[in-house]
Amino acid sequence: MSPRAQWKGYLKFGEVNCAVALYTAVSTSERISFHTLNRETGNRVKREFVDSDTGKPVPREEQIKGYELNNGDYIALEPEEITAVVPESDKVLHVKVFLACSDIDDVYFDRPYYLAPSTSASEEAFALIREGIRKMKVAAIARAVLFRRLRTLMIRAHGKGLIATTLNFDYEVRSAKEAFEDVPDINIKGEMLDLAKHIIGTKEGTFDAGKFDDRYEAALTELVKAKIEGKAIPARKPAKIAKVTDLMDALRQSAAMIGKSKASPKRAAKKSASTSETTPTSRAASSPRPQRKAS
């Protein structure tokens, strides 16, 4: 079954344009979800909005948005007033500029979507845009009204299609300077830095999302399964975390452990080779030779 498009429109740069469809690249639908129940009856609890002063329920048609000026003082906004200021969509992803992917700090990345041609007539133009982006090793920065908001997207080549990642606005990203202002400027060098580089070097690899499991989701699955089957739920042992009192000593111990883990397979291989070499001889010496029959 083909996925349902979240948005359909056109991708355009210059006078080149093609019909495209946007598909969700990340979904949480496979996660375990819970409902809130009444412990006493086991019935599901329904959410109800009530007036904070009177305590009386407020029906959906009487609920409106409000912006808080002061504590408990609001400006009411009617649905039609909000609708009137929503940007009008022309269903076009307008490419504004092309730039290197590394030029965009990934702290601005919001949500990825797959972008594909939506009609057979647009496939050639789509391929042209995709291959141009791929060969030039750039990303396209485009703007469009998506889901009632004007959004900026970074579009990159990905296999036979494109990935369009919505970008956070500058006002949405908190200042890194403020977050790190209390971090002291410590100069690390010498043996300490060499040991750290050695440990990092031994653990270098490539990213494979399939190797990272969601332990929390797996634990919830096992919990639900145990409850269904009426099995006892095992108590989790608290993790032991060693306190680091000497950073240099911790680095040396880490490097030593890596050295041992690398040496172990070699010793096992040597032992195996030694065993395979001596075993036939030992068997030959211990086994009785067949005697010839007298003629």
From TrEMBL:
GO terms for biological process: DNA recombination; double-strand break repair via nonhomologous end joining. Gene3D superfamilies: 2.40.290.10. GO terms for molecular function: double-stranded DNA binding. It comes from the Bacteria. InterPro entries: DNA_bd_Ku70/Ku80 (IPR006164), Prok_Ku (IPR009187), SPOC-like_C_dom_sf (IPR016194). The keyword DNA-binding applies. Keywords: DNA damage, DNA recombination, DNA repair, DNA-binding. Residues 271-289 have a biased composition (Low complexity). The keyword Magnesium does not apply. Residues 257-295 are annotated as: Disordered. Residues 55-185 form the Ku domain. With LigD forms a non-homologous end joining (NHEJ) DNA repair enzyme, which repairs dsDNA breaks with reduced fidelity. Binds linear dsDNA with 5'- and 3'- overhangs but not closed circular dsDNA nor ssDNA. Recruits and stimulates the ligase activity of LigD. Belongs to the prokaryotic Ku family. Homodimer. Interacts with LigD. This is Non-homologous end joining protein Ku. It comes from Rhizobium lusitanum. The lineage of its organism: Bacteria, Pseudomonadati, Pseudomonadota, Alphaproteobacteria, Hyphomicrobiales.
